[in-house]
Amino acid sequence: MRYQNISLSVFKRQFILLVIIALYNNGPAFSMGLSEPITEPVEPVITSGPLGVPVRVDAYGLNSLLVSDYSRGMIYEVSRNDPGEIISSFAVEGRALAVAHMGSSVLVGNTTTGNVEIYSAQGRITGILNSDGKIERPSDIGVSQQEKKIFVVDSRARAVKVYTRKGLQFVFGADKLVNPVGVALDQPNRMIFISDHGDSTKGISAAVFMYTFDGAYIGYMDGGEFQFYRPRGLAYDQEKLYVTDALAGEITVIDVAAMTRSGALGEYGSEPGQLVQPQDVFVDPERMEIFVANKRLGRIEKIAFGGTVQ
């Protein structure tokens, strides 16, 4: 598979950026990376959902999702049929940012303690993944269920740390990553995608970097060229990569084989299916469902393939 950047004209890139700047005011945004605060659009009327600040979402069994709530320090299990239905929950002593599962165990990236904590399904802490050293800011977690590898994005160390149950195995990405945030895995091809804010003050645009499971660099997708500007969480369905864009309030869809932008899902606003600072996305291609952690609206948005609200 060949990876290359697709160039837009200088005029088009400048036009896109000018339009975005024109739509936004000077309100600070919640940021998980290290770069400067971003500005927000004029806020719509917000009707809060059942969650506080949902920031990560992952599958859990056949009919449930795991959701981390950063403001409440909670992990929720919600229904896939109705993401507004909370099935169960447990509290974390600190700020719960990343969440994923390995088997029945729940992995939680706690930014207060600098740990990835391991919980039972009942919410009892059973261990610390990184007992051999703190993770400065565990922003996202990707799990290879087949290889039993756990990829932790440490946004403050600007690297990806790879663990097994035996502890830290190796670290990669520190030579290229600037403000890494989210992770998605391509298990059959043993490839990992890492979203990165970049740093506009240094002229470094947002990007999605690609590595092998062994940490070898493959290439990257430039945010300006693929039209995403504040990437958060990622999802991959073996054909398309879904990039959550907190700035634009949408999910950018990229055909990875063709290395082209297929379009976008969602739009900015508070109505059903609309997004305000989306933080993460989970995609189930078999059931043709897409779930988005809709941060400012306090809910998980359920969208069918093609963008239809359910």
Kindly provide the radius of gyration, computed on alpha-carbon positions and rounded to a whole number of angstroms: 18 Å
- What's the rounded overall pLDDT mean? 86
Tell me the overall shape.
Answer: globular
* Number of separate helices: 2
Low-confidence stretches: 1-47
Helical coverage, percent range = under 10%
Biggest sheet architecture:
4 strands, antiparallel
CATH class designation: Mainly Beta
Head-to-tail CA distance between termini: 35 Å
Number of domains: 1
Judged by helices, strands and strand pairing, the structural class is mainly beta
How many E strands?
A: 25
Beta percentage is over 45%
H/E element string? HEEEEEEEEEEEEEEEEEEHEEEEEEE
**Which strand order does the major sheet show?**
3-4-5-6
CATH level-two architecture: 6 Propeller
User: Which fold does the CATH topology refer to?
Assistant: Neuraminidase
CATH homology superfamily: TolB, C-terminal domain
